[in-house]
Design goal:
The protein has a single domain, classed as GIY-YIG endonuclease. Helices cover about 40% and strands about 20% of the residues. The protein contains 4 helices and 3 strands; from the N terminus they run ββααβαα. A 3-stranded antiparallel β-sheet has the order 2-1-3, sandwiched between helices. β1 and β2 (about 20-25) form a beta hairpin.
Length: about 100
């Protein structure tokens, strides 16, 4: 089985801030964000609502996409999220 890598976008419940990350285990990484395992930006702003993710089989393509998304304007990120998740629900709620 090919390894899967994810580029993901988190926000908080007021949708005031966004975080873009890469991981090789999306479920575990989201659990870490929700349980404040890693101190830093996501912990400080309570960014634990998964609103978007993309899967790829290559870590290089995941990192490249992460860098691309991080350069985007806020409005572009919101449009990307709403294209796939119009209500901006937490995609990890049922995990």
């Amino acid at each position: 089985m090919n390894e899967k890598y994810a580029v993901y976008i988190l926000t908080n419940y007021s949708e005031s801030s966004f975080y873009i990350g890469v991981t090789s285990n999306l479920e575990r990484r989201i659990w870490e964000h929700k349980n404040h395992v890693v101190k830093g930006y996501t912990d400080k702003y309570n960014l634990n609502k998964l609103v978007y993710y993309e899967l790829t089989s290559s870590i290089e393509s995941a990192i490249s996409r992460e860098k691309q998304l991080k350069r985007w304007h806020r409005e572009w990120k919101i449009n990307l999220i709403k294209e796939n998740n119009p209500q901006m629900i937490d995609l990890s709620e049922k995990w």
